[in-house]
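Example record

The entry below shows one chain as it appears in the dataset: sequence first, then structure tokens.
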Amino acid sequence: MKPFDVYPLMNVNIQNSLGSYVWDEKGRKYLDFYGGHAVISIGHSHPHFLERIKKQLDKIAFYSNSVQNSLREELAEKLGKLSGYPDYHLFLVNSGTEAIENAIKLASFKNGRTKVVSFQKGFHGRTSAAVHITDNDKISAKINKGFERFLLPWNDLEAASNIISQNDICAVVIEGVQGIGGVHVPTPEFLQHLEKLCKKNNTIFILDEIQSGYGRTAKFFAHQYANIQADLITVAKGMGNGFPIGGVLISPEFEAGHGLLGTTFGGTHLACSAGLAVVEVIEKEGLLENAGLRGEQIKKALKQFPEISELRGLGCMIGVEMPFPIRAFRKLLIEKFGVFTGSSSQANTLRILPPITVSETEVTEFISAFGECLSAFKKQPEYEPFFITK
């Protein structure tokens, strides 16, 4: 048997990691400014993270959700305080797509509706409901299209008003910052408008903070820049720093009931230990502030390159738009200069997603490698036309 071939693989075999770096089987060192789709939040192999997990493994790794688990209670309490949602409840799952599935399900339980609004270029997951509200029909099978969804233009107040004001929408789902879509930030006015429309029309407001949450944008959640509150917030990726864990933060307006939701592996002892390690490190090391400082350092330094068409993003979630498709540039950056970055569904946009523990020195190292790569890339004949000054 072989693995099902669904992933385009880089020619890199990573064996070890520490902080902002990874090493391949030959001992070559790479600067990781991607973190495996923004998963690595507090740096690879953080000592507190490792210690938490190792200690828990010596006790118990798993038992079902049919018994009490004080770690789950502790994680919910600490996450609530750190995130600014202390009166919400936490339902734990294993991944971002599961968080979205459960959020949409809760919304439909709440108002009895089935129509969902999401946004162009958005990405919310690959399972049934999540993939249907994602703007990529290539990964959505016919069986996934089980309810009516509306894909609206980004930051379009009028379009949102026209649809949501029909008073039959179950939920509005929007990313705090679009990740795979190319790092697009919603305006505060747009998020505030959506919040008001949802309240007025009994529509559930769901913030997808799976990639943009956990301090990546220099606030715990990206939507907090707009001073709004969501009814449901989905989290994953940086929540476990590589350990599979996700969750839904649930407004106290929702009433729980035994059997309403469920999961076999969500919120295990080991998963909660990983989750606790992350929130403890974020708080103890002041990582929200660091994400802001290092993000500004990256953007300020990148502005020196006139070749860049546009810079977007917040904190350590940055989109770099180039005047050419970045696939070959990203490949060169990895293979010749040893730096991992991310792609997006927008062919010309490079995603910069370092851990929020990233240092000033590591940012300087990244900028140097980026500049050298750009110089080497410009000398390739097939890309020369993109750099001709008009």
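Notes for this example: The chain has a mean pLDDT of 96. The CA atoms of residues 82 and 200 lie 29 Å apart.
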